[in-house]
Prior knowledge:
With 231 residues, the protein is α+β, with helices and mostly antiparallel strands. Helices cover 43% and strands 13% of the residues. The chain contains 7 helices and 6 strands. The strands form 3 sheets. Strands 1-2 form a two-stranded antiparallel ribbon. The protein has a two-stranded antiparallel sheet with strand order 3-4. A two-stranded parallel sheet has the order 5-6. The N and C termini lie far apart (52 Å).
Amino acid sequence: MIADFRGFQNKGLEIESYDSIPVLNVTSFPLEVQKNMVVKRAVDVLFSILVIVGIFSWLFPLIAIAVAIDSRGPIFFKQVRTGKSTNNFWCWKFRTMYSNKNADTKQASINDKRITRVGSFLRKTSLDELPQFFNVLIGNMSVVGPRPHMLHHTKEYSKKVERFMARHFVKPGITGLAQAKGYRGETPDVSFMKNRVKFDRFYIENWSLFLDLKIILLTIITLIKGDENAY
């Protein structure tokens, strides 16, 4: 007998039998199914190859030269972030800041003096994220999924936001439902992160290939229009 299950997503409900006892499983989600995992991985590989060959191959030299001329330091910026099942991985980006000791603990903010001139442009256009398609090709990220956080923020928000760690049931993404809905950039308060996690959990519990394609389309539209939350 179930007293009240109105708080659960219908798509997340599944009945299993333990001997003669029916049990309602509320932890299953689409990307636990092998077929769905294969489909999503195939799309990730195809999409990342198209971007790397069709865009990154000719755009990389231009961005690399601009970053090198604008400020001293490496072309790429890498940072350890939290991935699927809380496994850490190196997340790659084009460097958008001057070298600083707070890179692993402090988020970028509006009028952040650490951001270079070229870095500001790369962030507003999200071109700084292009190297992450190699993360997708390797397999530690997906094109669409919850955005990966630096370890410091994973530790911080796991204590402040209920079921925060549930967003790590799937691979992190270059873009996600939360970002497509406007929750990008700095998290000024806990409520902002709670809303982001809410969208992340909805995505995990209701994943479909159509939803992925819709999020990619919304992200492209946002980039074309310009994102006021990017800096």
